[in-house]
Design brief:
Number of helices: 15
Distance between the termini: 72 Å
Radius of gyration: 39 Å
Order of helices and strands: HHHHHHHHHHEEEHEHHHH
Amino acid sequence: MPENTRIQKQYDHRLRQLIQNTRDLDLAVRHGVPRSTARGWLNQSRTDVICIDVLDMDAEALQQEVLFLRRRVSRLFALLHLVVVVFKVAEFSFDRIRIPDGTRKQRLLRAIERTRTHLPLRGVLRLIGMSSTRYHAWLGKQECGLDDQPCCPRSTPQQLTREESLAIRDMVTGDEYRHVSTGTLARLAQRLGRVFASPTTWYRLVHAHKWRRPRQRVHPAKPTIGIRATRPNEIWHVDTTLIRLLDGSKACLHAIIDNFSRRVMAWRVNDTFIPAVTAELLVEAGREIEDTKPQLLVDGGVENYNSAVDKLVAFYVDQHNTHLLHSAFKGQTPDEMYFGTGDDIPKTLEEAKLEARELRLKSNRERNCQSVLCQRTPVAEQISTCK
């Protein structure tokens, strides 16, 4: 052994605890402890020491105790080795999966915290395949909940407010708008000044909350592009639709539609198919124009069947012309396009959308979410979870 090698002395833990309790350095010196060492004991934290007085055990009992502990350690080591191998074979890693539920995250964090008393944090995270960034990110989310879809308004101020979500729910599930598609309903809500949100947001909320429309609508496949007019009364379409009613009977709907504005110029419902009605409708629609001679296109395709349409054709024609907004007209109705009375509507809607967005951000940033498990719940429960 080299001459400069120094052997560190070991002292009984009971003597160290006695000095910490009495704070008498002279007592330590009298027992052969250097004063500097005793002074260091005073600044150390207390450690729990579990003592087993093996002197009271005979050799046979001591051997049995050692053999029992060895078998137990061997079983735990084999079990741990099996778990590690299964993780590696299955290529399991928390970096490759999502855990959206906050309760499951809490359980995992508590398990990691218990393991840290025996192993370093880095080793624990490496064992389960979790990055330290993700672990600390979960710890930082505990104030507003660990769920992946938080409704904390301060962290995501651009989200819809509770009032806007309730307005969307009422319009989607209300009988008043049962004849309006979801995409058109989103644009209609902007026109009414109730909610300024894109149709995509509406579809996402309807799917997430499982809101059901009053009845299901079946839409035929739409062409990607068709004939486009440049002004009103340039092109007219003549269309005849065979309608099957709820009582099993049939009706024929004859209509003349302006291509530019999609306005229904004239229409008529008959119990049977009458070709002469087309001429009468052309005369009726021609009374609204003076010297213009529109180009007439006749659709010779198959008849359209829709079991959900009833005899309130007049109501639907009025809704189509005066209330329902067409996606190609930036918030204008067919009547407004036809008569040219809605030129200022796109600009007005854009200004109102920007104002609504600023109010939404201000409202969300002023809220203080104090819920531990704040999460995106159905709108009816969201009132009580986010304050």
